[in-house]
Amino acid sequence: MSESNLVEHPDIPTTRTAYDEVAELYAGMFADALAAQPFDRAMLGAFADLVRADGSGPVLDVGCGPGRITTHLDTLGLDVSGIDLSPEMIRLARADRPDLRYEIGTMESLPLGDAAVSGLVSWYSIIHLPPERVPSVLAEFARVVRPGGRLLMAFQAADDESVDVQPYDHRVATSYRWSVRGMAELLRPRGFTVIARMHREPDPDERTRHWYLIATRQPWADSPEQG
After folding, report:
1. Measured distance CA(219)–CA(204) in Å, rounded
2. Are 102 and 82 in contact (CB under 8 A)?
3. What confidence category does residue 43 fall into, taking pLDDT thresholds of 50, 70 and 90?
4. How far apart, in whole angstroms, are the C-alpha atoms of residue 173 and residue 125?
5. Which pTM value belongs to this model?
6. Where residue 226 falls among pLDDT bands split at 50, 70, 90?
């Protein structure tokens, strides 16, 4: 997908530019982060096990940044590609792993046909989306994941699980923290059923708690709700 085809809501150029500007710094800071994050690796490993048990098939890393999660999923034996809003992030990802497939694009209009992938990873990728646009993005995820396929999401946790979403002063761009209950309720009418969830407390250099969830795209959900 070319940049000219991106869905340009007013916040998108701001987020794209912000990540272009910090791409080199971001890539350096997080290049080896998974080595010290056993819980993150556990959820990524569980997701990979499920995709392989289902017969494998292509996996899409949405919001892949410089490709660190894409690369890790490749080491776990998945046929994985990445997509990101930031051209500079994609440049770094391609430079690091020219053998993997990376494209510039937006999660609000994925450059894939219906039921094209066996799994989709959204690793902190929805955090900058205004909450009112999250349902349509989850519907877009459901469109490209085949029935029976898997979704893995990671996002910062809201302080109070009774509050669905909270604004968060992210260092790069405005972002939002979600309760796992609120996210699960948005996933259900879009055709996903949560089958596993994990809560993690912040590391010493982090400011928030984290949620991780794995969901299955239900076979009966042929027409996920858009709103």
Report:
1. 41
2. yes
3. very high
4. 12
5. 0.90
6. low
Using CB atoms within 10 Å of the CB of residue 114, give its burial: 0 to 12 exposed, 13 to 18 middle, 19+ buried: exposed
Q: For residue 204, what are its two tokens?
A: 């010493």
Sheet containing 192-200: order of strands: 101-104, 79-84, 58-62, 117-123, 145-156, 210-217, 192-200
**pLDDT tens digits for 73-127?**
999 999 999 999 999 999 999 999 999 999 999 999 999 999 999 999 999 999 9
Name the pairing type of β-strands 165-168 and 145-156.
Answer: unpaired
Alpha carbon dihedral 187, 190, 193, 198, in 10-degree steps, equals -20
Residue 91 in tokens = 């440049």
User: Considering only CA atoms, which of 26, 37, 117 is closest in space to residue 64?
Assistant: 26
d(CA 197, CA 159) in angstroms, rounded, equals 17
- Hey, CA dihedral for 64, 108, 59, 164, is it positive or negative? positive
Rounded Cα distance between 17 and 85, Å, is: 9
